[in-house]
Amino acid sequence: SFCRVVDDCVDEADGGGEAGLDHWLAEIDRCYGGAPDTELGRELAETVSRFAVPRSALEDIVAGCRMDLNRNRYETFADLRVYCERVASAVGLASIEIFGYSNPGTREYAVELGLALQLTNILRDVASDAARDRLYLPLEDLARFGVAEDEVLEPGSPRRPEIGKLLAFEADRACGHYGAAAERLPAEDRRSMMAAEIMGAIYRELLEALARRGYPLGGDRVRLGRPRRAWIALRTAARVYGGA
Q: Which end of the chain is less congested by CB atoms within 10 angstroms, N or C?
């Protein structure tokens, strides 16, 4: 709920923008001080009193959303990675404290999985982001494949093969982070990371669905149906508990 309300500060007309983000940044401070002002803040304060959720993770989430107010292009992947770590990896670093883990290496898993999930989101949401004049594909990658911004933001003319190559390149990058996450998850913490593993499996399947559809830049948003998601969850649980 905290992540949603902070994101809404940026994406919703009545979200409050900078002032809304400033309010929630101050509320984080009040939560850790034991004197929150809001009902959500009181729930969050209870959570951070029970679990070792790092304040820096919550502050990073706010900082990442603030980037959406002040920046709509990323020159390099290094620049984009900062954004992804704030809006996604930080959520993972907060969540694993609730899931519970014994090996500090699980924090590296959370960072890598967050990167993979956010890169998948970026590929899925190119069109909806374009409607807000946001382009999360690094400009250095557009230049590498000879793709102009308007070919991605306003696709209307026949699609050139270079666009597909660009999007496949970004998908390969996401796959690399899924693989890195799998490599960094310590065996002793696999079961406690069940929820994260299920989410990772669903999003990886979503990435594969995007690939099968040729990474569409418009039309209906690519989704996985509820039965499919349920099957992936059951399959993942069986894999985790089976040790495969």
A: C
